[in-house]
User: Fold these one by one.
Assistant:
Number 1:
Amino acid sequence: MPTPESAAFLARKPKVPPSFSGVDYDDTPRFKAAQDAILREQWVKCMMARLIREELGKCYYREGVGHLEKCGELRERYFAALKESRIKGYLFEQRNYLPGDETGG
């Protein structure tokens, strides 16, 4: 069940997608909002990988010798999350943005 978001949280929540698509680099507030959205998205992926890793550790401890069979789904989720959980920053996307590229990440 989702928790209600406070007004302060909603005020600071980025209103632009996590990419430089359609952002005028001379419009500083919108440009900084795009940078912030990209970094937030990367941090969310990093924290999701951390949560999965903690659950995997609990599963290994709980299952003992049967962890290879019982924790396989968590292990696969963790490996999938690990591929995209690095904090890369926004400079590469910012400097190498192509106007026709709409990948967003």
Number 2:
Amino acid sequence: MLLYDNVGAETVVGTKECQSYTFSYNDKTVHLIDTPGFDDTKKSDTDVLKDIAGWLLIAYRSNIRLSGMVYLHSISETRMKGSHMTNLRMFQKLAGLENMGHVILTTTMWDKTPIEDGKRREIELLKTDDFWGSMIKANSTFARFHNDKRSAMKIVTTLVDKHDKLILSLQREMAEGNQLDQTSAGKALNVEMHAQKEQYEKRLKEQESEMKEALRENDMRYAQELADAQDKISSDMVRLEKNQQELKISNEKLLEEKEEQIRKTREEMEQMKAEAERQGKLHKDEIGKIKLANQEAEQALADSREKLEADSKAFRENCVTSAADLVAFMDQHYSNLTAEQEERVREMQANLRAQQLHQSPPPPYAPFQAPNQPSPQQSPQQAYPPQPIPQPIYHHPAYQPMPQPMPQPIPQQGGGSDSLMAGAAAGVAAGTIAVSSLPLLCTIM
């Protein structure tokens, strides 16, 4: 399959020589040959034709036949330039009108063109005989490439499914022994170069007249500009003459040049491959060093993490042991204090009982009596024991509030005032004991 590129015409970027791209599609091997366009800024039209003719001649002698041709044209172009017309005429001469049924005329750059403008330009291409109209009449088809795989494979499928192969007009003419300048494509290119040469000669004559006029008016600056332009035109004419001579090349010479080009290309590819392998080895070594450094860093990190976990575990164990020792010590200390306080309470109770035995009973208590109520002498005297003092509650997981002694009942001594005083004294003593223990408990907490 031949991909004829007209997109890169008059641009620096584009296909510079025939390049082959191979891929598999539906159990078939597809070879896509990308060819340069004419009027390239880096190569002359003669070099472009020689490049295409050389590849086609090698393919023909190697019994390689084409399935079809794809002609690419940018729909973003606002008009058909002279370079576009040159490309189109050379393509028609190269392929031959008899092979137009194997040609797909394809427009590109739809993503960079307003759709209405693109449709209008497409219709103009298809309807104008000087553009694509004559090829459409000769059974060529057209398609749009939307810069995606789907539209590309649709074009490829159309050509791959064709079972008959074609021999281009240029291949057939060279196989018959014609030199490149004697083929239809060579003759068409000669006509283009001859017309260009005539334009150069016409411009030279015009500039000679302008030169005489400038010298007559003593306009040296304009005369120098004309002289520079004449020099450029003269060099272009020399180049055209050289290209016309290079077009007169035999098939054998063309094959030799193409094979030499292929040999140089292979050498360059081998050098690029060797350089790529060398760079790959360097990169592999660098990657190995980086991996080793990463492994060492990971191992150091794992060791640090393990040491940190061990230290944390030891610290937790030490904290637990210390806390347990502290709790045991405080429990022992609290037990000792509780025993001492209980002993003090028992001693104070014993002292109070002893005092009560040696004291006289308190005087009778006569409260206010309502009418019809019995007198105090008619009812026995009641003793009012003191109420226990509320104790503060201390919340601590290891300790409980210290138990307080219960107030003991005061034996009745005939209802005298001594018993009441003794009871009050006992209550005060118990309260004194409970309150006096607070500073000690707070200190322990």
